[in-house]
Amino acid sequence: MHHHAHRHTHEHVHDIDWGALCSHLEREAELHTPALTQATNWLRDLLGGAGVGRALDVGSGPGVVAGLLADAFPGAEVVAVDQSSALLERVRTRSSGRIATQQAQLPDEFGRLGTADLIWSANAVHHLGDQQAALTALAASLRPGGLLAVAERGLPVRFLPRDIGLGRPGLQARLDAGNEDGFTAMRTELLGVDEVEDWPAMLARAGLVPTGTRTILTDLPAPLGLPAREYLRTRLARQRDQFGEHLNDEDRATVEALLHADAPTSILWRPDAFYLTATTVHTARACTA
Fold first, then answer.
1. What does the alpha-carbon distance between residue 197 and residue 184 come to, in Å, rounded to a whole number?
2. How confident is the model at residue 289 (pLDDT cuts 50, 70, 90)?
3. Whole-angstrom Cα distance, residue 187 to residue 266?
4. Nearest to 285 by CA among 52, 114, 18
5. Cis omega before residue 156 (within 30°)?
6. What's the Cα-to-Cα distance from 47 to each of 161, 202, 216, 255, 284, rounded to whole Å?
7. Which SS3 state, helix, strand or coil, does residue 45 take?
8. What is d(CA 283, CA 8) in angstroms, rounded to the nearest whole number?
9. Contact by Cβ (8 Å): 47, 8
10. Model pTM?
11. If you write DSSP's letter for every residue of 183-249 in order, what string do you get?
């Protein structure tokens, strides 16, 4: 996923610390690797015997999914496409040159992507003002019979019980509400076209034939390993920075206690922390000539 894994950062592009974001996205995508591998295997099944000569990961981030596409389609040229040179540098390092990279500002440079038999895009389209136009542009890059896979929305991450013994129960749901408000503000700021986010219908309007939607669970029960806990701590810190001012004082204090690295209340040490989320992938194919 872009993110998406996913780049649920609602910062302005010029404010982003790409190095920190790269590390965060990479850790997130690695947590999701079993689910993402299921997704790429499903895409391989959908394409059947159709040869995949070129595959694009649009909004690739550090290139975890691009690597999985290269595993699933060993004969294909796999290209990671992103706006960030720092993230693309990480793709090259991770893949030892196995994956090509292309820097592109979207949506302005969709036309530079070239054609492909398979296009994957996770949590990237929602960063573009006109999502329908973005899907239509991606569809236009598909070769006849080619497949477009878009991972968007799914279910938000759950990582704490309702009652954690700190503050008012239900913190997680209030964090989710803050994140949704931030997401809506981001979309509004993009001057996006208001539309019903019915992804299969949008793919059909892009001229493609929808070929199914699948949701894949990432389920890491407590007790979590340290890498997952460190990821959660970073995620929580990012949420505090993005919309912490919208939380009440009690919730802010609870978040700070969860972030405090040396306290037993910290997400780094709590035995009840888990990681549960769902990735939804929508697919559609270009008609054969």
1. 13
2. low
3. 32
4. 52
5. no
6. 40, 21, 19, 45, 11
7. helix
8. 22
9. no
10. 0.91
11. HHHHHHHTTPPP----HHHHHHHTT-EEEEEEEEEEEEPSSPPHHHHHHHHHHHHHHHHHHGGGS-H
